[in-house]
User: Fold this.
Amino acid sequence: MAVLRALLLLATVTRVLANAKYTGTGSTGLYWDCCKPSCSWTEKGPWLTHPVQTCKKDDSPLNDFTVGSACGQGGTAFVCNNQQPWAVNDTFSYAFTSTFIPGASEFDWCCSCYELTFLNGGLEGKRMIVQASNTGYDDPKRTIFGVGAPGEKDYADGCMDRYNSDGGGFLGKEGRPLTKRSDCESLPKQLQQGCFWRFDWFLDAFKPNMTFQRVKCPKALTDITGCIRDDEDKFNASAGGKTNAASTPRGDSFGLLATSLVLAAFAFAFNV
Ligand SMILES: *[C@@H]1O[C@H](CO)[C@@H](O)[C@H](O)[C@H]1NC(C)=O
Ligand SMILES: *[C@@H]1O[C@H](CO)[C@@H](O)[C@H](O)[C@H]1NC(C)=O
Ligand SMILES: *[C@@H]1O[C@H](CO)[C@@H](O)[C@H](O)[C@H]1NC(C)=O
Assistant:
């Protein structure tokens, strides 16, 4: 009896932990680094198609995913200009994010799509669907979805190279981020749309929190990155973001088996 109860409890705990990869709460932010996104490498995910599209300096597609990032790595791959956010209406936007979910890995989130529902910052009730195109390693203990939008936290070195700019637009006056809508006009023209979005739709919110839930990727996003995961059809959004048994990562099954054996041995030894 006790063994059975322990196993049932364990199964529940394991399910909650597994789901934490796909659903939970976290915070957001804005960034634009001009670099090759982390999910643009072939080994970063289980692709049906290919990793996140990268671009050459002139924004034409660069389809060789072995080319290194132009940001300090001697490569020639940049993020494409069209991976900026856009609003569908007042309460719904699309975007690409630099993602980090504790307990998950790039192999889980790269090119997965998530619905974000904002909780504060004046954005209450607004939603976004985003595709994880990049990875944020700033704080590995927190869930973060950094929205790729220019003008708040830019990597000036990478962007200056990309746009032959003196960096003024990227750092704002005296090295501060841009603070008002009209400041967006100091960015290269190709990057102004995402900057305007920050003030028009995102209401210049500072790191607002949200709940996230993995959803099947809309074509509107995958048409831009060309990146589709091979678990998109197996993935069961109505089960709280759980993938079905066929796509459960091996590590989870091993962990479950090992912990079950330990618990069963404990229950047996102490006759609980
Ligand atoms: C905004 O667009 C979303 C996504 O298409 C839709 O679900 C929602 O109903 C729209 N809201 C309004 C107020 O038009
Ligand atoms: C928002 O997220 C931050 C960082 O995770 C957390 O410290 C804070 O308590 C959250 N605020 C709300 C209102 O949920
Ligand atoms: C998806 O999950 C829901 C809720 O758990 C379940 O009723 C449904 O049968 C699942 N669908 C598939 C295809 O696994």
User: Anything to note?
Assistant: Confidence is low (pLDDT under 50) at residues 244-267. Residues 219 and 226 are 9 Å apart (CA to CA).
